[in-house]
Design a protein that fits this description.
- Its main location: periplasm.
- It comes from Microbispora bryophytorum subsp. camponoti.
- It catalyses: (ethylene terephthalate)(n) + H2O = (ethylene terephthalate)(n-1) + 4-[(2-hydroxyethoxy)carbonyl]benzoate + H(+); a butanoate ester + H2O = an aliphatic alcohol + butanoate + H(+).
- The structure is a single chain.
- The protein starts with a helix and ends with a strand.
- The chain is an alpha+beta fold and 430 residues long.
Amino acid sequence: MSAAAAALLTAGVTATAAHVASAATTGCEVGYTVTSQWPGGFGASVSVRNLGDPINSWRLTWSFPAGQTITQLWNGSPAQSGSQVTVTNASYNGAIPSGGSADFGFNGSWNGSNPVPSDFALNGVTCTGDVTSPSPTPSPTPSINPSPSPSPTASPSPSASPSPSASPTPPSQPAIDNNFPVTREGANGTNRYTVFRPSNPSAVGRAMPVLVFGNGACAHTNGSEVIQALTFIASRGFVVVDTASVDGSSNGVQSGSPIPSLLTDGISWAERENARTGSPLYQRLDLSRVAAAGHSCGGLEALVAAQDRRVKSVVSLDSGFFADGSFGYPRSELSELHTPVMFMDGGSSDIAYDNTRANYDLAQVPAVLAEQSQAGHVGFITGAQMSEGMTAVVQFLDMTLNGNATARSYILGSSGLAARASWTVRSKNF
């Protein structure tokens, strides 16, 4: 109820204006940053700061000035018609308090030039960095025989708007800081996959990203080698779908050669499970945040599967396409990638060392090359470097799927992974 309406009721005056709702204080500012750019593509981060009254949901609109197109987006839902873009909140980040912020990121395509948009609107209000307070509600004219009006009461001062220098809402907790109990189980309806997930999905507090994983040696039956590594990832708030049966039993799939469709079919399984009533993952998955990863032969599977438009990030562990096109996949496949990619190798003793480096050099998308000189070919999976290797994987996924700034600093900053003993990190197009 407005201050004017309250005063009228106190004075005993009956007036229809007493039922007029208060207008909201509005205002917003937007930070739009191109975080990386490569031929025909770019990455961007957007921070939306609410300078007005708290809101429970948000819709940000803008127009691209040069025909750019969003190809993937995280922490929101995009819609685009021509140059006009609308991004609405995800299920977990709709509320923005006064002075608080919501952040999202996306990858896009461009042709010719990539200028930054200049005009944004939050829930229909143009974001200028200023605050608009509601106009005072005029005193209504009394109907009949009003009681004598008391001396005018000074209108209370409007609530102070947030200071432009107020700190925005801190970023969400980095995924690596999570440590959820993990359940390992067979995939519902098929024995072709093992699922690693937080045991209590509701404890995660938000819809979970999905990672499909290909095993070393393209092992499509026995996935015991990766249990420890994939449990590590799942405990950080990810749902991992691995291409092997949960107990190593026969599942009708041959091992030893890459079958990338197993990974893309794993994404489809996750989509069905997210929609299946009674599933522990029912409406618990964020299928706008899907990644593919794999080790050795499984890494090659992941690089091919990552061409699927549902995939938003890919990690290749001790792997890559061969110069001679072995397994039927030449290095020209790298030109089909549309997402950020991280290549990891275990140093010169890793049989995939040269191959990994060559693939990184040829990649045209944002790419990271992370090398641990002591890990060899299996150290990230079963060796002493498993924890630090899987930490790097989680941080990269947190950066590319969740847009987490702390994870980005860890992967790309000089004081993060690159500062750890035995690690060398290179990156490009970020």
